[in-house]
Amino acid sequence: MDAPFEANSGFEHSCDDVLDTPAHLSVEREVIGANVGANGYTTLDQAGELGRLVHLQREDRLLDIGAGRGWPGLYLAEQSGCEATLLEISDSDLRQSLGRAERTNITARCSFVRGTATALPFRSKSFDVLIHADVL
Ligand SMILES: C[S@@+](CC[C@H](N)C(=O)[O-])C[C@H]1O[C@@H](n2cnc3c(N)ncnc32)[C@H](O)[C@@H]1O
């Protein structure tokens, strides 16, 4: 696995302190369909549909741009068995996605890259499937 990320990009979310509060978790269950670690609006059903639409297979290399806390990229990797690279500009989100991958025991096939979608730090043809959820 690549080095997870460098510390202190200086970009942090102002909503970090409300995530995982009882109120947030309750709203997430009602709106998203489960507690999945979302900080966007992709529902559980939509994430499943996304995986089916891109025909994600075990042998695929998935890139999730603006991966947040690993939703839905890590979820799709968990479901399909594929390799996943999470690109995220926020250090705190990357740390949380690394923690999620550790908890679900998939770090060996995941990479965590701090960077920006405007200058992707990858060679061409590095990935088979690219997703981004709620990233403008
Ligand atoms: C609304 S959140 C969605 C996160 C996740 N995809 C989800 O659905 O839960 C948007 C994410 O994009 C990240 N982001 C914003 N601008 C970015 C950029 N230029 N490059 C990489 N990530 C970026 C933010 O840090 C944030 O985690």
Number of strands: 4
Strand order of the largest sheet: 3-2-1-4
Structural category = alpha/beta
Largest sheet: 4 strands, parallel
**The level-1 CATH class:** Alpha Beta
Kindly give the count of domains.
Answer: 1
| Tally of contiguous helical segments | 4
Strand content: 5-15%
Bound molecules: S-adenosylmethionine
Low-confidence stretches: 1-9
Rounded mean pLDDT is 90
Described by the principal axes of the CA atoms, the overall outline is globular
- The succession of helices and strands, N to C, reads HHEHEHEE
The CATH topology is what?
A: Rossmann fold
Helix content: 25-40%
State the CATH superfamily name.
Answer: Vaccinia Virus protein VP39
Gap between N and C termini, in Å? 28 Å
Summarize the topology.
Elements: H1 22-32, H2 44-53, E1 61-65, H3 73-80, E2 83-88, H4 91-103, E3 110-114, E4 129-131
Parallel strand pairs: 1-2, 1-4, 2-3
Bound molecules: S-adenosylmethionine (SAM).
S-adenosylmethionine binds at residues 38-40, 42, 66-68, 71, 87-90, 93, 116-118, 133-135.
Q: Your description of this structure?
A:
By secondary structure, this protein is of the alpha/beta class. The protein has one domain (22-131): Rossmann fold (3-Layer(aba) Sandwich). Helix content is 31%, strand content 14%. The protein contains 4 helices and 4 strands; from the N terminus they run H-H-E-H-E-H-E-E. It has helices at residues 22-32, 44-53, 73-80, 91-103, and strands spanning 61-65, 83-88, 110-114, 129-131. A 4-stranded parallel sheet has the order 3-2-1-4, covered by helices on one side. Strand 1, helix 3 (73-80) and strand 2 form a beta-alpha-beta unit. The longest helix has 13 residues, at 91-103. It is globular and about 40 Å long. The model is unreliable at 1-9 (pLDDT under 50). S-adenosylmethionine is lined by residues 38-40, 42, 66-68, 71, 87-90, 93, 116-118, 133-135.
